[in-house]
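Thread: quick sanity check before group meeting

JM: Hey all, I'm pulling together slides for Thursday and realized we never actually wrote out the predicted structure for the chain we discussed last week. Dropping the sequence here so it's in one place. If anyone has concerns about the input, flag it before I start.
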Amino acid sequence: MEIRNLLVSDWDKVKSIYEKGIATGNATFQTSAPSWQEWDSSHLAACRIVAEENGKVAGWAALTPVSSRCVYAGVAEVSVYVNPQQSGKGIGLALLSELVTLSEAEGIWTLQAGIFPENFASLRLHEKLGFRTLCIREKIGKQNGVWRDTVLLERRSTTIL
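JM (edit): ok, ran it. Output follows.
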């Protein structure tokens, strides 16, 4: 497996993996994948990666700024998605680990993740890499007319003080 920067040419595969996550109902509140332009403009340019196995994109990870205010310039939200056919191979762990390294190289001191409590695999993955649970955000949003909770996790850099 190779971890490398996400390229524009990867978008169709990245979008497909994202759509598979959306279909589970436990990965995001999003109901459809955005266009490349929308996705590109909302994610940090320096922290976008894919895991490639046998020449095929098996997963991706990226960061989104949590605010446009300069005081929060070092705080970003994590997205990690793995093709369900590739789950259980350590791809998510490799992606998130590399994302942590890249984020610190970019001066990001806090990573956040909002995860549905039913998404046990994602919660465990984040905890393995030092994310801690801050709270349960009860009824934070509706999905298909049903209120959903999310677990808010945070990882504070140990190198950026």
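AS: nice. Strands lie at 2-5, 48-53, 56-65, 75-82, 110-115, 132-143, 146-156. The longest strand covers residues 132-143.
JM: adding both to the slides.
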